[in-house]
Amino acid sequence: MRFDLHNHTSSIKKFLEIQQNSSKATQEAYLYDLQYHQLDGLAITNHHDIAAALHWAKEYPQKILIGCEYRVDGEEGTFISVVVLNLTEKIHQLLLRARHRGLGYFTMVLKEHHLPFYLAHLGTGIPPEHPYASELLEDALRFFDAIAVLDASGTHSDFPGNLAKYYGLAVIGGTGDVALGKRAYTESSDSSTVEEFFAAIQAKKVTVGLTSPELFEKSEISSLWQWSKSFYREKMEQLWHSEWNWHKEWSLNELLEFMQMIFAPAWHTIPQASMLHQSKVSQEKLAQWEVRFANYLKAKSTQEILRQDVPIEQKKQQWKQAIAHIHSCFRTAKTVLV
Q: Which of these, 313, 70, 297, 265, lies nearest to 166 by C-alpha position?
């Protein structure tokens, strides 16, 4: 099974509702994406709100996972982004309060209710320049079994995946804020039900990927633009068959709809360009993170080994193994093994 586990409906809602003034258009666009990208379903994970997810799941119970992204208060003025799946309204209200009591309490509630969850937006809530950034991140990681490592921006840092490798975390793929003509997904080849899929995440038996490029070579436009193109063609046909007397046959609202569709490509591109810019900034931050965190791990391992009451040769061997393991996971630090 393949699920896209990270989606925010608000990013395309305005674009679609301007044209049809109906949230149904948003739902149909996402469901079209499922078929177009050959996915079994997707999770709606808006920030601190599950109203859209509940509504969509009621209409399409086999396709929509009810999720939410929470900003959980951390130490030293930081926060951690946690995506939670398989929610109900009652548990959601509980989590809205729990997120202000820290990550330890928040994840305790999640585990008590057997809810799947993962760490998202690595580094956004803990700036790399924070004096205790590495310590705060490592402390947060101990509460997670899974971490988001792939979105559909087209560029991604290896840092989340390297953390998953070093700490033995499950990997999660999800599109993110805006659909860019392809989707990131999480896959469990052995699962045939949603329950089995969640269990596979817990067992760390999932992989991530992007929808096949071949799908988009056949159609050089995204599924959302494909939807808007059909609307645009319909209006052009109306204009043509009116023998250019459009001012007599079109109402003001129809004319405004037509003009909006002319500018739709620009509206569709703006959020994509914004996301790509944000992604570039995010990658730069994660690059800083990786170097700093790898150096933190080496310094921490060295100190722990030096404090051991064992012969010096044994310390040296342990240090070589620890540093080699860090290098094999992160491949950023250039310490020479002696």
A: 297
C-alpha span between 43 and 66 (Å, rounded): 6
Confidence of residue 59 (pLDDT cuts 50, 70, 90): confident
DSSP calls for 157-170: -SHHHHHHHHHTPE
For every residue of 85-120, DSSP letters joined together read ES--HHHHHHHHHHGGG-HHHHHHHHHHTT--EEEE
Domain 2-217 has CATH 3.40.50.720: no
159-214 residue pLDDT tens: 899 999 999 999 999 988 655 567 899 999 999 999 999 999 999 999 999 886 55
- Per residue in 111-131, pLDDT (tens digit) is 999 999 999 988 788 887 888
Task: Determine contact, residues 235/48, Cβ cutoff 8 Å.
Answer: no
What is the rounded distance in angstroms from the CA atom of residue 2 to the CA atom of residue 81? 23
Pick from 308, 305, 309, 301: nearest CA to 325: 301
Report which residue type is found at 244. W
Q: Which run of H or E residues covers position 209? A: strand 207-210
Q: Which residues contact 170 (CB under 8 A, 6 or more apart)?
A: 118, 145, 146, 147, 164, 201, 202, 203, 204, 205, 206
Chain segment 284-302, per-residue pLDDT in tens:
677 778 888 999 999 999 9
Give the domain ranges of the chain: 2-217, 221-262, 268-330
Contact between 319 and 301 (Cβ < 8 Å): yes
Helices (H), the chain: 10-20, 23-36, 51-59, 89-98, 103-112, 133-141, 159-167, 194-202, 214-218, 223-241, 246-249, 252-262, 264-306, 312-330
